Q: What sequence folds into this?
């Protein structure tokens, strides 16, 4: 990259270099900051973060392509490029392409941020990292303060001990603990490195300001970390700490510093685990792990995830599709999770992308292990860098190593800020210890003598991706979470007209988006059902348009049991307008409903509807009861189980099996005493019985 580097002796270059480095640092910190609250839900945040990331990447890669693409030598850059390309290729065979699109940006942020950061010119990269690292330290204080504030709020509001676990800006406290681990180890190493320069003992007034600041940051991170009471985080910390001890032990006066850190660890544990009765250590015992519902559920989830992989062994179901496929594989004893993630990134990578996808994640873990081998065992022999730089790299690698190990028991890389930060940490580590120079320009070697061709392709790719992301953000803002629109447009009719136009536009701009199609279908169907002035031909057109929109919504995400429920209901209620006879209407209805039930076997409404139409309405009440009872074998949470039992009681009552129905109601109250429909029904039965006795 000699054509875009600045010479240290060129004074006119320094202001421009400093400005560019500062701009890169701002963009990187904006990317990092926007990722905090995404949590797999706030699509506009993901869209904004990804667009800023692409703008940053475009600014970094543009001069590199103009120079003919001078590529850094080494295994890791090529590995990361292959990994990112693989994530992109999976979109073409994913079973749920629209869902996979979002997770492409979440999981792909790790290799993408790495690829951007390593292409920054060397001198610019040094200034960039200085400013970026200061932002990371500020974020560590923000996250630590957030954890302590959430912990304090839990104490003063007498929250249950099980919920007295801060989660920061994430939705999961274990992932938050992994984030704190990711920050802890680089800070730990820098504290040792900076403090080792002191010539005067600490107790005699020899205080290094930088080292003291890092010590305060360590204290805050430890307090925040132990406030999470995360077993997985603690295990990852325990498994990573010996490598830190190994690397730092030879520094001058390392023992007093380790003693200081040990004291801080003990104090943080004693303070933050007091409210839990110091149960964190006990929760790591084999007896507790094998009997605790959360760990038992993890085992059942992993078995179900393995079954998903066996059903799609070659290329998987598509990245980010786990939560869509899991309901059909959930085992009966697993009722402790929402089924969103497998709580094991390695297994989830396997189920979603097959052996190749798992191979990339295992390869990344192998890179970390090899880096530790070079930094620790072969230190001073294989690396031509100073000990200070080597240890700085060690801290960054240890942080990423800790979260990679934690990924065996939690969902880690599916958290956007962790992926972003891991990629940037690895880029910095590789730049210091792994870089072995650059190649000659690659584009001329493959026959591309004009860099603007590739620059144009890159710009086109960024524009297309940004266009889709903006459409996704608009879909969420207008159709998924549009309460904000009430304050902007107070007239309901005007709001409805605007939303209809937005949905219609989005179906053209973003055909794979599911929500606009569903919104249009619901609108068309509502007009067909409620506008009595409309002729039969117009109603038929609206119903056909609604059916088409429902079917189009299944293209991006086929595993939508709710949409299939709506399609079945449309055939049942509007099939006559479509020219279908009674038998064909029922057949089409049952086909859609059964497809929906296969996707989500825990759906009570679908099961009840099928039992009514396929059995009870045909005079086979016992068949309907058997079909409903089969649902009790599924893993149902208490409220849905009560709903299903109530449906069974209703069918028994209509079949004149009143004693059996009353027995079923009593069973509901035995399992769920607060279920109001069963209480009201039993009270009505007893009042009627008392009235009957009084009359006679």
A:
């Amino acid at each position: 990259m000699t054509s875009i580097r600045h010479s240290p002796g060129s004074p006119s270059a320094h202001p421009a270099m400093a400005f560019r480095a500062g701009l890169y640092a701002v963009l990187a910190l904006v990317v990092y900051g926007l990722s905090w609250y995404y949590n797999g839900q706030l699509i506009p945040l993901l869209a904004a973060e990804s667009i800023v990331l692409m703008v940053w990447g475009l600014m970094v890669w543009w001069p590199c392509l103009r120079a003919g693409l001078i590529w850094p030598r080494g295994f890791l850059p090529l590995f990361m490029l292959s990994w990112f390309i693989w994530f992109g290729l999976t979109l073409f065979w994913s079973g749920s392409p629209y869902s996979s699109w979002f997770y492409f940006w979440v999981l792909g942020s790790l290799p993408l941020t790495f690829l951007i950061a390593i292409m920054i010119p060397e001198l610019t990269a040094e200034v960039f990292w200085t400013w970026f690292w200061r932002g990371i330290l500020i974020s560590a204080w923000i996250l630590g303060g957030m954890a302590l504030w959430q912990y304090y709020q839990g104490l003063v509001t007498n929250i249950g001990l099980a919920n007295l676990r801060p989660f920061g800006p994430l939705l999961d406290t274990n992932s938050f603990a992994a984030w704190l681990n990711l920050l802890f180890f680089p800070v730990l190493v820098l504290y040792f490195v900076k403090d080792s320069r002191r010539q005067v003992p600490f107790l005699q007034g020899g205080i290094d300001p930088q080292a003291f600041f890092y010590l305060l940051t360590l204290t805050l991170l430890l307090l925040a970390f132990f406030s999470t009471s995360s077993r997985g985080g603690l295990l990852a910390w325990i498994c990573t700490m010996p490598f830190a001890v190994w690397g730092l032990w030879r520094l001058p006066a390392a023992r007093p510093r380790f003693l200081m850190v040990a004291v801080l660890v003990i104090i943080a544990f004693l303070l933050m685990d007091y409210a839990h009765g110091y149960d964190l250590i006990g929760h790591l015992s084999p007896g507790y792990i094998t009997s605790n519902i959360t760990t038992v559920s993890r085992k059942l989830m992993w078995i179900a995830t393995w079954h998903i992989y066996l059903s799609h062994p070659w290329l998987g179901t598509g990245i980010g599709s786990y939560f869509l496929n899991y309901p059909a594989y959930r085992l009966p004893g697993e009722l402790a999770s929402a089924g969103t993630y497998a709580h094991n990134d390695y297994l989830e990578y396997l189920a979603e992308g097959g052996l190749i996808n798992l191979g990339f994640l295992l390869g990344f873990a192998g890179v970390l292990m090899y880096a530790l081998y070079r930094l620790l065992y072969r230190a001073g022999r294989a690396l031509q860098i100073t000990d200070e730089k080597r240890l700085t790299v060690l801290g960054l690698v240890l942080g990423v190593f800790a979260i990679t190990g934690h990924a065996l028991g939690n969902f880690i890389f599916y958290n956007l800020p962790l992926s972003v930060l891991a990629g940037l940490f690895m880029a910095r580590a590789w730049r210091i210890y792994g870089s072995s120079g650059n190649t000659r320009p690659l584009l001329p070697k493959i026959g591309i003598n004009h860099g603007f061709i590739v620059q144009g392709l890159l710009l086109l790719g960024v524009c297309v991706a940004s266009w889709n992301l903006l459409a996704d953000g608009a879909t969420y803002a207008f159709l998924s979470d549009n309460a904000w629109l009430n304050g902007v447009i107070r007239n309901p009719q005007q709001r409805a007209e605007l939303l209809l136009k937005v949905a219609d536009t989005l179906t053209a701009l973003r055909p794979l988006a599911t929500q606009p199609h569903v919104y249009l279908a619901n609108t068309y169907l509502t007009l067909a059902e409620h506008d009595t002035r409309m002729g039969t031909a117009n109603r038929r057109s609206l119903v056909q348009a609604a059916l088409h929109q429902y079917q189009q919504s299944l293209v991006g995400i086929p595993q939508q049991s709710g949409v299939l429920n709506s399609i079945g209901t449309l055939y049942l209620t509007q099939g006559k307008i479509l020219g279908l006879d009674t038998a064909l209407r029922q057949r089409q209805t049952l086909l859609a409903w059964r497809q929906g039930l296969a996707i989500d076997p825990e759906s009570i409404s679908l099961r009840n509807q099928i039992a009514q139409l396929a059995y009870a309405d045909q005079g086979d009440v016992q068949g309907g009861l058997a079909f409903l009872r089969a649902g009790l074998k599924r893993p149902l949470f208490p409220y849905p189980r009560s709903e299903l039992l109530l449906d069974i009681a209703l069918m028994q009552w209509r079949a004149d099996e009143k004693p059996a129905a009353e027995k079923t109601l009593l069973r509901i109250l035995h399992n769920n005493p607060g279920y109001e429909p069963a209480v009201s029904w039993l009270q009505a039965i007893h009042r009627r019985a008392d009235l009957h006795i009084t009359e006679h």
User: Anything to note?
Assistant: Confidence is low (pLDDT under 50) at residues 1-13. Residues 122-156 form the longest helix (35 residues).
